[in-house]
Design the sequence.
């Protein structure tokens, strides 16, 4: 039976909308303005369920229609709006449905909430207090059941809940929050509010919530999530109002953070100025006195003592180091610290740096390296700077005589350098901050331990620029271990590197002939008649082999052997003797090739010695450490 012809005019005057469905829930009739009143689009002959979100509320509505009984409740539409539905069954089967929207446009509530948020911002610029005041204002002033604020952490990577209106309530929904899910992800990506459904919250069938992005002028700082009262929904106007309120909250949060960062920067600046003035003054005072003393002695015609000059030089070096640290920190801040990268064998670098410390300080050092080089692509000077800083710290913060261990290890894809001391250690609360600029641990006294607090910051930055990582493991009172991981060159890249041969021959023509033969074979060759000079030139990178003439004069041989024994080497360097017989000082298994040189004989001897050395070393998978040297 169809309704009278004038019923449409009467229905248009009512806020509710009317629709008739059959027992199969197909639409038999709907009033003309149904979609305009409810926001629900229904087509005659279509199924009612196609326009509704599935859930227990829709199941209850469906059962009431099919069983022919009255019903009243709220359902959520596919457009994520809540509507109230009343069911009146008909004698012929099916039912009349009275549908009305449940959203509100309460500008008074919005204005009151905004005023309270503004008052909270005026009273405090602390992030926590501003967020707490905002969620409380929303719940008190508007038809909002619950409100939450999530803010990005300082690294802008993760969201953390900063405030919630009913944390002590008994009906708080599950706290699990995954920003990668809709509608949170869409709200953050589009910087527009998005609607979602919180299942099992509010009434028994779920509730609508709005995820509103907190958009500051330069970035999105987080999310404001608003849960509606039971049976309520969000209108378009309401979302616009809460977006405006969220923007105000975002600006307040951003201002609070900027103020906190400015205050922290001022504290760091004041502390730095205090430390820097002390550190710069410390070497200046004795330097000034030393120079004044030397000036008086020179004016009086007296000789200047070498000890005074050396003391002044040490103070100048200390000042230069402080200034260089400040310059490096400035270059890092401006992104102007450049790297000059080249293939570098880590074991050789460690051996050289530790050898310098072993001669400078009366302290036992141990060095452990794998037998077969660990290569990286890096800036030698900058990586040496990092290693020197780690060793200086280990020496400075360790008691006299305590050993310092340096290890070179090979991991699956990294070259690892560890520096371990048995000093004062670093408190657990400070370990996460030791790589920050100007930071010094609490157990470090400026009076007993100098420094600007820049060394670890610079070291961490240099390692990071190499694509590596610098980590710390420490226990207060028991020492620290710093671990530096650097990307290791692949085996293919290492095989392409030229092998290095040092040729020492007193006869320039023979030396040149050997060099030509070896270079034609792809070797990198050093040829200097003075053995000590040759070794010093080659010390930057490991030498794979030394070709040594047995007919060199005794002074030349003595100079070479003395220098060879004292220069730092990560691993033993094999020697190929060139001559008719082995000299008395050579071991029986030392390689020997004829001289004058013939290309085939020289190359055979070189390849034989290098192949024998390669067989002596264990495979990388079997070796962690095979060499240890101790002062």
Sequence:
């Amino acid at each position: 039976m169809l309704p009278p012809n004038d019923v449409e005019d009467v229905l248009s005057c009512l806020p509710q909308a009317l629709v008739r469905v059959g027992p199969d829930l197909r639409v038999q009739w709907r009033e003309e303005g149904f979609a305009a009143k409810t926001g629900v689009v229904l087509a005659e002959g279509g199924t009612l369920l196609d326009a509704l979100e599935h859930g227990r509320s829709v199941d209850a509505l469906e059962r009431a229609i099919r069983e022919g009984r009255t019903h009243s409740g709220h359902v959520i539409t596919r457009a994520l709006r809540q509507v109230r539905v009343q069911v009146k069954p008909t004698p012929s089967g099916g039912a009349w449905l009275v549908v009305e929207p449940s959203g509100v446009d309460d500008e008074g509530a919005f204005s009151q909430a905004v005023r309270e948020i503004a008052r909270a911002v005026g009273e405090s610029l602390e992030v926590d207090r501003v967020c707490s005041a905002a969620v409380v204002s929303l719940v008190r002033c508007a038809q909002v059941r619950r409100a939450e604020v999530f803010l990005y952490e300082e690294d802008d990577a993760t969201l953390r809940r900063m405030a919630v209106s009913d944390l002590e309530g008994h009906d708080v929904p599950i706290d699990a929050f995954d920003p990668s899910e809709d509608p949170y992800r869409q709200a953050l990506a589009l910087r527009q509010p998005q609607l979602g459904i919180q299942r099992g919250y509010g009434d028994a069938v779920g509730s609508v919530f709005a995820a509103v992005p907190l958009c500051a002028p330069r970035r999105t700082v987080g999310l404001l999530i608003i849960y509606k009262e039971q049976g309520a929904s969000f209108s378009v106007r309401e979302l616009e109002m809460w977006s405006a309120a969220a923007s105000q909250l975002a600006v307040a949060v951003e201002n609070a953070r900027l103020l906190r960062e400015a205050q922290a920067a001022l504290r760091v600046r004041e502390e730095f100025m205090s430390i820097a003035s002390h550190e710069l003054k410390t070497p200046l005072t004795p330097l000034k006195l030393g120079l004044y003393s030397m000036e008086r002695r020179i004016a009086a015609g007296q000789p200047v003592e070498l000890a005074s000059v050396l003391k002044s030089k040490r103070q100048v070096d200390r000042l230069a180091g402080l200034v260089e640290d400040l310059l490096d920190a400035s270059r890092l801040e401006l992104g102007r610290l450049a790297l000059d990268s080249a293939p570098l064998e880590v074991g050789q670098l460690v051996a050289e740096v530790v050898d310098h410390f072993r001669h400078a300080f009366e302290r036992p050092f141990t060095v452990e390296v794998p037998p077969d080089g660990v290569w990286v692509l890096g800036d030698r000077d900058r990586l040496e700077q990092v290693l020197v800083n780690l060793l200086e710290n280990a020496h400075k913060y360790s008691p006299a005589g305590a050993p310092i261990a340096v290890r070179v290890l090979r991991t699956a894809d990294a070259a690892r350098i560890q520096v371990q001391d048995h000093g004062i250690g670093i408190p657990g609360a400070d370990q996460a901050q030791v790589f920050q600029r100007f930071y010094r641990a609490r157990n470090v006294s400026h009076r007993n331990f100098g420094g600007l607090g820049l060394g670890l910051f610079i070291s961490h930055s240099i390692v990071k620029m190499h694509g590596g990582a610098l980590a710390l493991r420490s226990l207060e009172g028991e020492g620290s271990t710093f671990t530096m991981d650097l990307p290791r060159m692949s085996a293919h890249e290492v095989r392409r590197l030229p092998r290095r041969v040092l040729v020492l021959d007193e006869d320039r023509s023979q030396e040149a002939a050997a060099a030509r033969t070896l270079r034609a074979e792809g070797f990198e060759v050093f040829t200097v008649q003075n053995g000590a000079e040759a070794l010093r030139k080659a010390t930057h990178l490991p030498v794979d082999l030394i070709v040594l003439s047995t007919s060199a004069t005794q002074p030349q041989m003595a100079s070479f052997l003395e220098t060879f024994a004292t220069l730092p080497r990560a691993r033993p360097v094999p020697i190929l003797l060139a001559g008719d017989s082995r000299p008395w000082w050579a071991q029986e298994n030392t390689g020997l090739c004829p001289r004058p040189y013939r290309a085939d004989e020289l190359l055979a001897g070189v390849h034989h010695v290098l192949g024998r050395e390669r067989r002596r070393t264990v495979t990388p998978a079997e070796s962690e450490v095979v060499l240890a040297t101790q002062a």
Remarks:
- The chain has five domains: 5-101, 107-167+177-263, 268-334, 342-491, 498-615.
- The radius of gyration is 40 Å.
- Confidence is low (pLDDT under 50) at residues 167-174, 201-205, 618-631.
